[in-house]
Amino acid sequence: MMNITHFPDLISYLGRKGLLDTNQNISCKILTGGVSNRTVFISAAGGDSFIVKQALAKLNVKEDWFSRPERIFVEARALDELPNLIPVSSIPAFIFEDKEQFILIMQAIPQPHENWKTQLLRGSILLDHVDQFARLLALIHSQTIDNDYYASLFGEKEFFKSLRMDAYYRFTATQVPEASEFLLQLISETIHKEYCLVHGDFSPKNVLVRDENLILLDYEVMHYGDGAFDIGFAMTHFLSKANHLLLFRGKFIEAARRFWKTYNHIAKINAEMEARAVRNTLACLLSRVRGKSPLEYLSKIERDTQLAICLKILPQLPRNMNHFIEMWETIQHE
């Protein structure tokens, strides 16, 4: 199988597929930051620029972590469908897929742009960005509730199970005995809930900011399931950064509250789903310090602190998200 990071082979391949005129100056750059794919940015003198992704069977993390590379085609399907749910300006355009080489090609977002995670980690927290982030998720969830079409199109949960439930919740259950029963129950609950389209990797690292517009990326674990997971996954990034950047703790706590308010204003979820969103928030906060994919920006002390906060909240876990955020803030200040 071809390795797309071998640039001469990649350029020749793109020429054979009719996707690139190879009789021009072509620039190739490996994009880093992800663990599940090889990713290359292609820019040609003629003006063409696109992203080439190739799924890996073994992910680039310390622990053994495997997932069938066919998940790349879930992302291709998502790129084709999501313009029906969210603004076209918020998603890259699909170009090409190769089912033998596990390759997906999409539009490159024009420069200048910046990864939202990068902005947040330097303390640049704009509430308009938080609102956009919440709206994108709320639109995906609220427009696909009890929808047979999307349930059929994204009904396969294998990749969500291996890349999220197993690598995050199940592995963390083996590392944190105090939370094992809670996490295993939540796995069962999450797998069996099916009522809306779920992104599965709804994180600032999968968002580009261009002209103050958020562009959402990475859909390989999209499936029809429980939207409460997406909420918990997203909320974890605001609260973990509050633990990491103490100077901006208040702003990240405010961002968490704003995300929840904006999301709920559009999606109008019920008390049962809110309680599940709280449980998934706690589970993701645990998993990002003891799972197979710990947040790389947290120091050991910060990871241990986050674990301690989670374990202090667990026995008195509320059903209300604002109450959960308040508890997190209060314990952080202790």
Task: Record keyword descriptors for this entry.
334 residues, Phosphorylase Kinase, domain 1, Aminoglycoside 3'-phosphotransferase, Chain: A, domain 2, five-stranded antiparallel β-sheet, 12 helices, 49% helix
In short:
The protein has about 325 residues and is an alpha+beta fold. The chain has helices at about 5-15, 70-80, 115-120, 125-140, 150-155, 160-175, 180-190, 225-245, 250-265, 270-290, 300-315, 320-334; strands at about 25-30, 35-45, 50-55, 95-100, 105, 115, 195-200, 205-210, 215, 225.
Give a structural overview:
The protein has helices spanning 7-16, 72-81, 116-121, 127-142, 148-153, 158-175, 180-192, 227-244, 249-267, 271-290, 300-313, 321-333; strands at residues 26-30, 37-44, 49-55, 94-98, 103-107, 114-115, 196-198, 207-210, 213-216, 223-225. The chain has 334 residues and is α+β, with helices and mostly antiparallel strands. The chain folds into two domains: 7-107, Phosphorylase Kinase, domain 1 (2-Layer Sandwich); 114-333, Aminoglycoside phosphotransferase (APH), C-terminal lobe (Aminoglycoside 3'-phosphotransferase, Chain: A, domain 2), CATH 3.90.1200. Strand 1 (26-30) and strand 2 form a beta hairpin. Helix 6 (158-175) crosses helix 10. The mean pLDDT is 95.
Task: Furnish the topology, listing elements before pairings.
Elements: H1 7-16, E1 26-30, E2 37-44, E3 49-55, H2 72-81, E4 94-98, E5 103-107, E6 114-115, H3 116-121, H4 127-142, H5 148-153, H6 158-175, H7 180-192, E7 196-198, E8 207-210, E9 213-216, E10 223-225, H8 227-244, H9 249-267, H10 271-290, H11 300-313, H12 321-333
Antiparallel strand pairs: 1-2, 2-3, 3-5, 4-5, 6-8, 7-10, 8-9
Helix pairs in contact: 4-9, 6-7, 6-10, 8-9, 8-10, 9-12, 10-11, 11-12
